[in-house]
Design goal:
Layout (H helix, E strand, L loop, with lengths): L2 E6 L11 E8 L8 E5 L6 H8 L11 E2 L2 E2 L5 H8 L2 E4 L3 H4 L6 H11 L6 H14 L16 H13 L5 E5 L7 H18 L2 E6 L2 H7 L2 E6 L2 E7 H6 L4 H8 L40 H5 L5 E4 L2 E3 L13
Parallel strand pairs: 3-8, 3-9, 6-7, 7-8
Antiparallel strand pairs: 1-2, 4-5, 9-10, 10-12, 11-12
Helix pairs in contact: 4-5, 4-6, 6-7
The structure holds iron/sulfur cluster and magnesium ion.
Length: 322
């Protein structure tokens, strides 16, 4: 609820006063148990900061995060550590997130030990081997180092580390963006298989609509730190409402008949989150922009069950101006 993560800009980069990068700027959404919520948006829209803020790897500035009925925004360190076993993250670059000096056995064993899962070393070795098999690797990989694996295999290790501690929620932050296209589908399928066999819930972050489409039940579209549209997958692809969603879809190659073509070409760059445009932050690039868009921040309109869009076109108060 109203999640905000703002970073102060270092003084030496400023002319005067205090300024903030509003990386995450007022997010509202929920994830149902057992589903995959996809979060899509261009790079720099705050997706990764959102993922890290939910786990409190970065402290949010404002707002509330509730998980399994508990408010985690106010947990102390000890309770937060316990909670971290329930919520895990898979990073975009598996190589950067795996210690190059540790064997796979040591990396996974450490995760198990930290969360008090396997006590004795024999039990731990067996559990690590089982994890390797679960992610499509071999038990003999246990003594190898991260550099001895391909990119796809390394991401399998990152996934094994996340599932090692029996989490119920996994935040996957662009887990296939660094991989070859031919490997992407294999890793996405692994995510699907594990979701079913382990009863996982995912928040799946991507910049690529086709990836999000493949894995999600519902999708949130992010622009400059805000979710501008939230919808079930089918509704979003058949009838994208927000002009930004429409623009993202028109950028997808049209082999997919489900992806509706509105042919919107975005002009200009994504504005800086340290100085976001007034009113609707998308107004500098929106082909439907009216005067009201420059001054009034759009409300979150509940257009249908489970569908939300933040755009004045769908607000009874302003829709006649469009
Ligand atoms: Fe475009 Fe206005 Fe809607 Fe923003 S509020 S997306 S500028 S039409
Ligand atoms: Mg990112």
């Amino acid at each position: 609820k109203n999640l905000k993560t703002h970073f102060p800009i270092k003084k030496r980069f400023l002319k005067k006063g205090k300024q903030f990068v509003k990386a995450v700027d007022g997010l509202n959404f929920y994830v149902n148990k057992g589903e995959t919520l996809g979060i899509v948006g261009e790079s720099g829209c705050g997706k990764s900061t959102m993922g890290r803020s939910i786990l409190r790897l970065i402290e949010p500035t404002e707002g509330r995060i509730t998980f399994q009925g508990k408010e985690i925004t106010s947990l102390n360190d000890k309770d937060l550590r316990k909670m971290r076993g329930e919520m895990q993250i898979v990073f975009q670059d598996p190589y950067a997130s795996l210690n190059p000096k540790m064997t796979v056995g040591a990396i996974l064993g450490e995760a198990l030990q930290t969360h008090g899962i396997s006590q004795g070393s024999k039990e731990r070795t067996e559990k690590v081997q089982e994890l390797l098999v679960n992610v499509g690797l071999s038990p003999i990989h246990i003594d190898r180092y991260p550099h001895e694996f391909s990119g796809g295999q390394r991401q399998r290790i990152g996934i094994a580390r996340a599932i090692a501690v029996n989490p119920s929620l996994i935040i996957a932050d662009e887990p296939v963006s660094a991989l070859d296209v031919s490997v992407q589908a294999q890793i996405l399928n692994l995510f699907q298989d594990l979701k079913e066999s382990l009863g996982l819930t995912y928040i799946f972050i991507a910049h690529d609509l086709s990836v999000v489409k493949h894995v999600s039940d519902r999708i949130g579209v992010m622009y400059l730190g805000k979710i501008v549209e939230l919808s079930d997958k089918k509704g979003l692809f058949q009838n994208p409402l927000h002009p930004y969603t429409q623009a993202l879809m028109s950028a997808v190659p049209s082999l997919d008949p489900d992806i509706k073509k509105e042919r919107i070409i975005l002009t200009g760059d994504v504005p800086s989150p340290s100085n976001p445009p007034s009113g609707c932050t998308f107004h500098t690039r929106c082909p439907y922009k009216q005067n009201v868009c420059e001054t009034v921040i759009p409300k979150e309109i509940n257009v249908a069950e489970g569908r939300y869009v933040s755009c004045h076109k769908y607000d009874d108060q302003y829709s006649k101006q469009f």
